[in-house]
């Protein structure tokens, strides 16, 4: 593998570069597609818009929802493709085609087997509950994650690996010694690709359109260092370049008056380039109003940090009232925030917690900063000795806030949330840190009291180009666009309008990128 931003090999007349397979995007999907294509003997070029590889995957915990794989079996987890499909159908329903769901779940095992054939790509089971109480659910989850890896094993590759969210977006000094989650997944792929013949990676190279001949996609227009390039792809193009969460224009068009400030995607990366290119080539689209939603803690006027499930404290709206189970999986809490908007209740809502801790309550899986002082000093986060004083600072009715806290404290004492059933689901209980009859219900009793604004954020858009069961891009009429494939957030998600479990976004991206590369390789053999 070579990594370059400027040089290109000799190409046919009229082309600046050429390959068998061109992959756009370097998240979990793009890296899988590139690895699979190269492993099948195809000359492969992966282009990445930014100077760093990894996309949003590099920020993630890298859970992979891949039922029935060999990493699960090594851990003793008795899962299967059929169990996974039962759960997927129960949660997604008919919003996406049954055959697309079958294609996803039915190829998980062979994907993991292919990847673990490389010594650098190793996975293990990690408990993290499925998100819905539905047939086929695993209460402790079925996801796998990449094994941790020492950064020194990557050598100079660590310099082109996108850092963690806190380091990349907040400038936090995060040691890069032991890589975990998305850092480990992307790092392991870079190592695997370095030892795989016939693959090149080109960073700082942006997709700028597709080239078609007689209706077939035969290459791409790209921009590198201000230079326009024509890159030929003899066998196919795989678009796995993320969604459009970073584009204010596209979000206003497809998602009402919502801007890009609160997304967790890398700045400047996912602006819908692949979506626009696919549409221009004749592709159909679906689910463009959808995201992988999440509640996000406001840090300043232009950024917010993803938060997963409150283990203590409560969320109140502008009326000073609770409106949901605060321990909900993040996409479901995001949809609860959407419902508040639809009902005309203005966001942000506020996360209220007491003086048991000076910073945000512990026990979260999140991107929240650990030091509250800068945000209290800036006035974005609020603190007061009394609930009445806190209510005044955040502009909610004091009587309502006090009554809401008193009612919640009574629920905590009794061990039952009569309003929103917090602590009754296996997901809630998995993250619970409290004591008493219901560890998910921790009373708010000790001042000073805190209020942190929470807005509707996202982990990326999930609407995109329509595809068939082999990841081939299709037109609005269902015909295949020859030579063009899509995966990840560039593809209309197999999960429709729900988020079934941890690792569905990256897991499905990897499966469909794998299927795309396999289909290209099969056609070359035929």
List the helices and strands and how they pair.
Layout: E1 2-4, E2 17-24, H1 28-39, E3 44-47, H2 70-75, H3 81-92, H4 98-106, H5 108-115, E4 123-125, E5 144-146, E6 149-150, H6 165-170, E7 178-179, H7 181-194, E8 199-202, E9 205-213, E10 216-224, E11 227-239, H8 248-254, H9 273-280, E12 285-286, E13 291-300, E14 303-306, E15 314-316, H10 330-342, E16 349-353, H11 373-378, E17 382-384, H12 387-394, H13 398-414, H14 426-431, E18 449-461, E19 464-465, E20 472-474, E21 480-486, H15 504-525
Parallel strand pairs: 1-8, 2-3, 2-11, 3-8, 11-21
Antiparallel strand pairs: 4-5, 6-7, 9-10, 10-11, 12-19, 13-14, 13-18, 15-16, 16-18, 17-18, 20-21
Q: What characteristics describe this protein?
A:
FAD/NAD(P)-binding domain; nine-stranded mixed beta sheet; Flavocytochrome C3, Chain A, domain 1; 29% helix; alpha+beta; six-stranded antiparallel beta sheet; 526 residues; globular; single chain
Description:
The chain is an alpha+beta fold. It folds into two domains: 2-288 and 462-525, FAD/NAD(P)-binding domain (3-Layer(bba) Sandwich), CATH 3.50.50; 293-458, Succinate dehydrogenase/fumarate reductase flavoprotein, catalytic domain (Flavocytochrome C3, Chain A, domain 1, Alpha-Beta Complex). It contains 15 helices and 21 strands. It has helices at 28-39, 70-75, 81-92, 98-106, 108-115, 165-170, 181-194, 248-254, 273-280, 330-342, 373-378, 387-394, 398-414, 426-431, 504-525; strands spanning 2-4, 17-24, 44-47, 123-125, 144-146, 149-150, 178-179, 199-202, 205-213, 216-224, 227-239, 285-286, 291-300, 303-306, 314-316, 349-353, 382-384, 449-461, 464-465, 472-474, 480-486. The strands form five sheets. Strands 1, 2, 3, 8, 9, 10, 11, 20 and 21 form a nine-stranded mixed beta sheet that branches. The two termini are 27 Å apart. The mean pLDDT is 94.
């Amino acid at each position: 593998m070579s990594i370059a931003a400027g040089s290109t090999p000799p190409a046919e007349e009229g082309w600046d570069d050429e390959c068998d397979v061109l992959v756009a995007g370097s998240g979990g999907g793009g890296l899988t597609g590139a690895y699979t294509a190269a492993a099948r003997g195809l000359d492969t070029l992966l282009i990445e818009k930014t100077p760093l590889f990894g996309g949003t995957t590099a920020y993630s915990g890298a859970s992979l929802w891949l039922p029935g794989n060999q990493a699960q079996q090594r851990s003793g987890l008795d899962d299967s493709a059929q169990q996974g499909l039962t759960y997927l159908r129960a949660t997604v329903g008919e919003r996406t085609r049954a055959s697309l769901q079958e294609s996803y779940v039915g190829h998980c095992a062979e994907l993991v087997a292919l990847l673990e054939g490389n010594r650098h790509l190793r996975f293990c089971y990690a408990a993290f509950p499925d998100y819905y109480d539905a047939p086929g659910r695993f209460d402790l989850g079925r996801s796998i994650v990449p094994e941790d890896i020492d950064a020194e094993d990557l050598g100079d590759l660590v310099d082109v690996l996108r850092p963690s969210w806190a380091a990349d977006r907040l400038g936090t000094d995060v040691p890069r010694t032991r890589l975990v989650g998305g850092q480990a997944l992307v790092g392991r792929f870079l190592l695997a690709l370095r030892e795989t013949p016939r693959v090149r990676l080109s960073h700082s190279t942006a997709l700028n359109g597709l080239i078609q001949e007689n209706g077939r996609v035969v290459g791409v227009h790209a921009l590198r260092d201000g230079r326009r390039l024509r890159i030929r792809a003899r066998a196919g193009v795989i678009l796995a370049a993320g969604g459009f969460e970073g584009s204010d224009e596209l979000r206003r068009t497809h998602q009402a008056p919502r801007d890009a400030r609160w997304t967790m995607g890398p700045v400047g990366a996912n602006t819908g380039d692949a979506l626009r290119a696919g549409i221009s080539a004749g592709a159909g689209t679906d689910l463009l109003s959808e995201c992988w939603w999440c509640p996000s803690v406001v840090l300043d006027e232009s950024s917010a940090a993803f938060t997963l499930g409150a283990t203590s404290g409560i969320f109140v709206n502008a009326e000073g009232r609770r409106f949901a189970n605060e321990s909900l999986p993040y996409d479901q809490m995001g949809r609860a925030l959407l419902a508040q908007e639809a009902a005309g209740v203005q966001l942000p809502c506020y996360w209220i917690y007491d003086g048991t801790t000076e910073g945000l309550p512990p026990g979260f899986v999140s991107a929240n900063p650990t030091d509250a002082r800068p945000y209290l000093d800036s006035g974005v986060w609020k603190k007061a000795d009394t609930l009445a004083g806190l209510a005044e600072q955040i502009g909610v009715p004091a009587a309502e806030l006090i009554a809401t806290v008193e009612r919640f404290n009574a629920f905590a004492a009794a061990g039952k949330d009569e309003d929103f059933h917090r602590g009754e689901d296996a997901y809630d209980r998995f993250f619970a840190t409290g004591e008493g009859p219901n560890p998910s219900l921790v009373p708010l009793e000790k001042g000073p009291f805190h209020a942190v604004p929470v807005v509707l954020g996202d982990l990326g858009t999930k609407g995109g180009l329509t595809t068939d069961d082999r990841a081939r891009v299709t037109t609005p009429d269902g015909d295949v666009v020859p030579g063009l494939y899509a995966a990840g957030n560039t593809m209309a998600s197999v999960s429709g309008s729900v988020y079934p479990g941890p690792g569905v976004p990256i897991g499905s991206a990897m499966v469909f990128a794998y299927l795309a590369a396999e289909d290209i390789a099969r056609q070359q053999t035929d």
